[in-house]
Design brief:
There is one protein chain. This protein has two domains: 147 residues, Protein-Tyrosine Phosphatase, Chain A; 106 residues. The protein is built from twelve helices and five strands. Strand 3, helix 3 and strand 4 form a beta-alpha-beta unit. The termini are far apart. The protein binds heme C (HEC). The site of heme C has 17 residues, from helix 9, helix 11 and helix 12.
Length: 300
């Protein structure tokens, strides 16, 4: 028995070691990107490319189309520099809207491959959205789709995303060809209010985290303070760049938006290095920057 145990342990050790060696050998690195993962031939999923280094990694993968399903508004300049098409189809953690479903399928069907689909970290939403499109096009089986969710690390707490894959219908190519949803480079806001509603949504998540000493909630493992701040920052930038969204812009309106953006950027930059009392102070300043404008131009 003893000998058998030793022998078994030896076999396990052998498997474990060779497995590890193989993993290290076959794990290419993609500087600037995390969780890069092939969903099928010509379709990759991963984290948000933010730097030139990240786009260089995408170039090495020969990526022609980048699809963001994250809420933050993508910056087109790097994608243009690297001659990649970059479209924005944000989805929520609780699921994918019918319009977005059509857009995703259409994008996967029509846009040049290889495709890189990303959210923030590349674990939950990008994997689910990519798998959803591939399954709807009949490119992968449901069984494969579900195992890809597991391999990609899509958390079971995001049950809406899992449900989408369980219930997705396979469309015929003629049905897909008939889809005619626009594929925007950035989601457009039709009103100032809709921009603010979105800011409010992300702000609420931050308030919740603040109440829990800035811990990541168990029911939302992908939530990260600096990323949420980044999303709000991208919306404030959009507001500054779109004066037409707020008719009769008062003189100091843009200045008030700039002030809020400044507070966001400062908190984002220092969040991981400052202690709680200072954090409280910065949060209060940020909150004030929102209130200053609301008191003047919203709550009259
Ligand atoms: C420069 C002015 C300005 C700044 C800065 C500003 N807001 Fe607003 N916000 C408005 C105005 C104006 C409205 C009302 C829009 C409407 O109803 O048409 C509004 C509405 C809102 C709403 C309500 C949306 C709804 O459901 O009707 C929320 C939530 C919100 N803002 C959050 C924020 C947060 C959070 C910040 C700070 C990070 C912020 N705002 C910064 C001007 C501002």
């Amino acid at each position: 028995m003893k000998i058998l145990c030793k022998c078994m342990a030896g076999i396990f050790l052998f498997i474990a070691c060779t497995g590890e060696v193989q993993k290290q050998k076959s794990l290419p690195s993609y500087p600037g990107l995390e969780n890069v993962f092939a969903l099928s031939s010509g379709v990759w999923s991963g984290s948000q490319p933010k730097t030139a280094e990240a786009f260089l990694s995408l170039e090495k993968l020969k990526i022609k189309t980048v699809i963001s399903v994250d809420q933050s508004l993508p910056s087109q300049s790097l994608a243009q520099e690297y001659k990649m098409k970059y479209i924005h189809l944000p989805i929520h953690y609780y699921g994918i809207s019918p319009k977005r479903e059509k857009q995703l399928i259409q994008a996967f069907f029509r846009l040049p491959k290889p495709i890189y689909i990303h959210c923030f970290r590349g674990q939950h939403r990008s994997v689910a959205a990519g798998v959803f499109a591939l399954l709807s096009m009949g490119n992968i089986t449901r069984e494969r789709a579900l195992s890809l969710l597991k391999e990609g690390g899509t958390s079971p707490v995001y049950s809406g995303l899992h449900r989408k894959i369980e219930q997705a219908k396979v469309l015929s190519s003629s049905m897909i060809e008939e889809l005619e949803e626009p594929l925007p480079e950035k989601v457009e806001f039709t009103s100032f209010r809709s921009l603010m509603v979105n800011i409010g949504r992300h702000y609420k998540q931050l308030q919740k985290m603040k109440e829990q000493s800035w811990q990541t909630p168990a029911d939302h493992p992908d939530l990260q303070v600096t990323h949420q701040l980044g999303v709000i920052q991208s919306y404030l930038t959009k507001a500054i760049e779109s004066p037409q969204l707020f008719e009769e812009q008062p003189e100091d309106f843009s200045e008030l938006l700039q002030k809020a953006k400044k507070e966001i950027l400062s908190l984002q930059k220092d969040f991981s290095s400052i202690q709680l009392p200072e954090l409280e102070k910065r949060w209060w300043k940020l909150d004030q920057s929102c209130q200053n404008c609301h008191q003047k131009y919203r709550d009259e």
